[in-house]
Amino acid sequence: QVQLVESGGALVKPGGSLRLSCAASGFSFSDYYMTWIRQAPGKGLEWVSYISSGRDYTDYADSVRGRFTISRDNAKNSLYLQMNSLTAEDTAVYYCATVRSSTWLFFDFWGQGTLVTVSS
Amino acid sequence: EIVMTQSPATLSVSPGERATLSCRASQSVSSYLAWYQHKPGQAPRLLIYGASTRATGIPGRFSGSGSGTEFTLTISTLQSEDFAVYYCQQYNNWPPYTFGQGTKLEIK
C-alpha cells in the first residue's frame, strides 16, 4: 500500500535552515506530482509547495517563496523540502502528499507529518 | 486567492445521527472541491473529490454535494471513528490550493 514517511523535523533557531525528507513506497513515485502541506499549531492546513513528476515544474505559496525549495529524487523515491531563513511562523507539522494529477490538484495520500519548531 | 469558509467550527452530534458540514468558496470553484478527514496524530485522509465522488475505500455513509460556491459533506449515520476534523479544499483556481479552516466533529 502507499506509504509516505516524513523525517527531518527539528527545533531550529530563527534564521536557520532545515531539510525535510519524505520517503515514498507502494506506488510508482516517478509518475506522481508531489506536494508539501503544513499545519501550524491550532491552525488549519496550508499548502506549501508542489513539484511535477519530472521535476520540471515547481510552485510555492507566497509565504515561503524565495526561502523554501522543493526537490525530488525519483531514483530514491524521495521528496525533499529545503527550508531557509526560518521564522516562528514556519512552526508547523509538515506533511508530504501525492497529487492526483497535473490538472486535478487534490491530495490522495498523506504521510503522518514531521514537526518543525522555530524558536530561540 | 479563493477563500474557503467552513461552518460550523464545531459540530456536536450523537453516534448514529446525521452530520452535515458546510463549505463556502469566495468565488465559484465549479465542482473542483475535495474533503479530507483528519484525526490527531494521523495522516489526513481524502474522502471526496469532484465535490461528490467518494475516494477509494471510503464508506457509503459519506457523501458530498454542491457546486459553484456552496458545498456540503454529509455523514449519514455517525460511527465512533468518524469524530475528527474535516477540511474542504478547492483546486479550481490555483495556486494556492486553499483549504477551509476546518470543522471539528465531536461526540455529543
Structure, described:
The complex is a heterodimer of chains A (120) and B (108). Chain A has 120 residues and is mostly beta strands. Helices cover 0% and strands 50% of the residues of chain A. Chain A has no helices and 11 strands. Chain A has strands spanning 3-7, 11-12, 18-25, 34-39, 45-51, 58-60, 68-73, 78-83, 92-99, 107-110, 114-118. In chain A, strands 2, 4, 5, 6, 9, 10 and 11 form a 7-stranded mixed beta sheet that branches. A 4-stranded antiparallel beta sheet of chain A has the order 1-3-8-7, with no helix packed on it. Chain A is globular and about 40 Å long. The termini of chain A are far apart. Chain B is mainly β and 108 residues long. In chain B, 0% of the residues lie in helices and 47% in strands. Chain B has no helices and 10 strands. Chain B has strands spanning 4-7, 10-13, 19-25, 33-38, 45-49, 53-54, 62-67, 70-75, 85-90, 103-107. In chain B, the strands form 2 sheets. In chain B, strands 2-10-9-4-5-6 form a 6-stranded mixed beta sheet, with no helix packed on it. A 4-stranded antiparallel beta sheet of chain B has the order 1-3-8-7, with no helix packed on it. The relative contact order of chain B is 0.34. The A-B interface holds A 4, 35, 43-47, 50, 59-62, 95, 97, 100, 104-113 and B 32, 34, 36, 38, 41-46, 49, 55, 87, 89, 91, 94-102.
